[in-house]
Design a protein that fits this description.
Structural class: mainly alpha
Distance between the termini: 17 Å
Shape: globular
Radius of gyration: 19 Å
Mean pLDDT: 86
Number of strands: 2
Strand content: under 5%
Number of domains: 1
């Protein structure tokens, strides 16, 4: 049996494999998403809190320069996603946060592609939102709000699995977008309801003296991961 050095730096399992014995159903239960996310959040409270504190500090340092924004921030976001998926699968380590740097090129390329797609999807809304204050047109302002809702309900919700597919299945950014769009097509209404429930979780977090918004973020993201796992299968196991 190999002994583990207690003084070695934290590491993360980087080559996941989906357990063939646990297949997705193509559907998900909203109640199960919430219950799994709630239980996982509080069972891993010290771990994810430490990851969030360190991760946010790293992100804050990254945004100080253009190079940091382009070359570091997406890879740290990859690590956040990796950690969240692993936490749902009950095998998260602190090292997951930095696991993207061990596969830097693929992680950076995929996350930059996702950023480009999201920017393109939100571009019309941003244009209208920036023009509205200069025109004093109520119609234009309402159009910006309506377009934002349409993009959120029609486009964004269909792309919610893309980062998970990048991290979990090793897809490239554009391939992950296409696959997310495909697999969510028959469950768009249910995903919208899941997002509305997530909004209620955020409100509850704000009402909890404001500090509840931090675990609310974790719960809501884990709800999406639970839906993803139920639909597409897993959990991961090491190879």
């Amino acid at each position: 049996m190999l002994s583990q050095n207690p003084y070695s730096p934290p590491t993360a399992l980087l080559e996941p494999e989906v357990d063939a014995d646990v297949t997705g159903t193509g559907d998900f239960e909203i109640g199960l998403c919430l219950s799994e996310a709630w239980a996982t959040t509080w069972a891993n409270f010290p771990l994810w809190l430490g990851v969030w504190v360190v991760g946010m500090l790293c992100m804050a340092a990254s945004v100080l320069t253009i190079i940091g924004i382009v070359a570091l921030l997406p890879v740290i976001a990859w690590g956040f996603t990796r950690f969240s998926v692993a936490m749902h699968d009950r095998r998260a380590t602190f090292g997951d946060l930095f696991s993207g740097f061990s596969r830097y090129g693929s992680a950076l390329g995929a996350m930059l592609a996702l950023i480009v797609v999201n920017m393109l999807a939100g571009a019309p809304t941003q244009v209208l939102a920036r023009l509205a204050p200069y025109t004093d047109s109520m119609a234009l302002q309402l159009s910006a709000v309506a377009l934002h809702l349409v993009v959120s309900l029609v486009v964004t919700v269909r792309l919610s699995f893309a980062p998970l597919l990048v991290v979990d299945r090793g897809l490239g950014g554009f391939a992950a977008v296409a696959e997310s769009w495909r697999v969510t097509g028959t469950r768009q209404g249910k995903l919208i309801r899941l997002n509305l429930l997530g909004g209620l979780v955020f409100v509850a977090g704000l009402l909890a003296l404001g500090i509840g918004i931090i675990p609310a973020f974790v719960i809501v993201y884990l709800m999406t991961i639970s839906a993803y796992r139920q639909m597409l299968g897993g959990p991961l196991r090491s190879v």
